[in-house]
Every structure is written in structure tokens, then in C-alpha cells.
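__Protein archive entry__

___
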Amino acid sequence: MSYQEMGAKAEEFLPLRDVVFKKLRRAILLEELKAGERLPEIRLADKLGVSRTPIREAIRKLELEGLVIMAPRRGAIVAQINEKNLKDVLEVRRVLDMLSAELACGRIDEERKEELKNACAEFEEAAKSGDLREIAQKDVALHNIIIEATGNVTLRQMLENLAEQMYRYRVKYLKDDSQYETLAKEHRALCESIANGDREAASRLAGEHIDHQEKAILHQLRAGMD
């Protein structure tokens, strides 16, 4: 059974409001629902084949996550990705990723080293496919291996709290396929430094990896304002 099938199976046992929430959140993160787009309850209820109640409850949860805002006389709207939010999230993620890379150097075992090597190759294969969702998933999977290698539960929880916000920015970044070659090289260098136990290089490369993402996303945001 594929991960997609497992996810669909798991959704069968969730309350309807949570199923609707997951579908709307996924649509926002993948920009199927665009920033600034209104979310009328009636239209969404008809499209998803549910009543307005789970739609309303899902929108409330999305608002708490910062993915939706409530505007006077307009109702629920998909929140914009702005420079302040981007910098706030990546500022924290940068520090945590640098720490993860450094800790992983001294704690990673041979099995996870092999997983990292394979994850790099899988990301590069996904990049060739052009499937944005698959590319994003492989990118997430690679970084999750590094996080798991630290063995630090608190660090993992902190990064999980940032995961949804990061995913939105990650998708924005990955929409630019000109970045794929650079991204693949950064992954390889980071994973090799961790496998070699080079703490200084791993920490530096993890920070530079985030810096490059921030620069690329800011370029996209500013280009969209022109």
C-alpha cells in the first residue's frame, strides 16, 4: 500500500471536520487555493459534498494556523505569503536546522547514512519528474532523516510545529525548477558532511541552505509585486 493510500485510509476514521481541514490545508499549501482567494462556505460545501458546519470549523482551524484570515465584509481569505512571515519562520528554522545538522554528525548510524544517500538520489529523481508534490515530499523526507538522526525529541517537536508553515514556503521555492540543480548539490554536500561527522561544515551548509531558499523566495515574492 502506498503512502497516499495509507493517508486516504486513515482519513476514513477522522471526524468530518478534520477531513475537510486536511483537504483545505493541502489545497492552500500546494497553492491550489491561491493567496487572496475567498473561501465561501457554500461553494466549498458543495464542492466537498458536506454541510457548512465542518467547512466553518475547518476554516477556524486554518485561521489559527495563519493560513486563513477573516476580512470584514469578505469573510475567509487565504492568507498572503509576505516577507515578514517568511523571515520570521526561516529565522527560526535556520537555527534549528543548523543545530540538527551538527547533532546528527555525532549520532547518525550507518543505516541512516545510507538512508540519507538514497534520499538525495530520490529527490533528484523526483526533480526530473516535475511533479511538485512528489518533489516537496522527497525534500521533506530528506530533512526528516537528519532530524531523526539527532535523537532529540524536543528538537523534533519544535521542527514539527514549523513544518506546515515551512511547507508553504518550500512549495513556493520548488516551483522554480531552475533551483533544482543547486538544491541537489546543497543536499549532497550537507549529507556528505553529516556522514563524515564534520560538525562545522554541516552546520554552515545547513544555514546556507536556508539562506539560499530565503533569497529565492523573496525574489519570487518581489517579482510578483511588479
